[in-house]
Amino acid sequence: MNYFNLSAEEFGRNAKIPILKLGDSGEVFYEMAAEMIDEITRNNASGKHTVFICPVGPVGQYPIFVRLVNKNRISLKNVWFINMDEYLDDNDQWISMEHPLSFRGHMHRNVYSKLDPELAMPEEQRIFPDPSQPDRILDTINRLGGVDIAFGGIGINGHIAFNEPQEKLTPDAFAVLTTRKLDISRETRTINAVGDLNGAIDAMPKRCITIGMKEILGARKIRLYCFREWHRSVVRQAAYGEISAKFPVSLVQRHPDALLTVNNIAAQRAF
What is the tens place of the pLDDT at every residue in 45-70? Predict the structure, then answer.
């Protein structure tokens, strides 16, 4: 099947991951923020805690999320945000929060510092994978009884978080990888340099820490969001391609409650 040639109208039919097609990127970001709010509100009403795996990319949902929380006085005191990944320096330590690429810095500046302190989750519930304690992520998830929703985007080579393709691994072997440090692929460094550093590839970090496919695939729900021009091919391979560690997001096809949401740009024919 030449899925790259699927038109916007055809895209989604018989897909191996359910597809939601929306209008512009703003609709995609609102949909993501709304799902976060709905899950938290439902769990708060039931006296349950909420555990999310969260990305920094996409990020357009966070201003909407913050505004809805503050305006509607939604308590996050029983909410855990487990961020997917972070860049590392040459010593395999977190890059500084002041670094323009720091995901920790982004979350502090654009989410946590913007929330009403009376509503915000405690600092100990704002979790990033730590290169000195990689096992902490899975331990925390297990202690909390699992992840409600894993939110994320998809990289140009199919990665989720920084789970880069592993061509020598079977899908089953790839699916059980947990939080770890690893090299960032040249493809990822290139596309991220274009988007974040105006093409300065040599200034991009070469190392990262990421949660594993085990943590992502273990979530009760997976919600992915794509909205860029180059996502046209990525979302088609994700939804129709074979399951392979060469294209990590393809493993989501096995998940019982996954949804891929795209805007009207990503829905268009790839070529």
Answer: 999 999 999 999 999 999 999 999 99
